[in-house]
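INTERNAL AUDIT FORM
Audit reference: QA-55
Scope: verify that the stored structure record matches its stored sequence.
Auditor: D.O.
Record contents follow.
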Amino acid sequence: MNDTDRAIGKALEEHIIARRPRPDPDPDIEVVGDDGGRILIKLGDLAKANPRQWVGPSDVWLPYFSKNDLDDWAAFLLPRLDRLVGPSPPETIDPSPWAQRLLHFAGLFRSK
């Protein structure tokens, strides 16, 4: 996503979370923290859980609590879908080490 997409997505995330009433009691939920590890936060603080997820290239979790939330995310994603799922540059994989290991492994089963 470009910077404009990220700003719009972050604002939508904040809107979706803000329209949900803060639960009482406010349960702990497990989310992915800044360092990629799992942390416990209050459900009402979900928007603050990983403020950097919308900055730079990273996976973005899209919170939803109702069909309306899913509709809002779909409206956000659909115009960007071609760009977001476009082909990646092909990976270059050297088959030599893999092929050598396979041949060695296959040789173990040959009769002598």
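Auditor finding: record pair retrieved intact. The chain has a mean pLDDT of 79.
Action required: none
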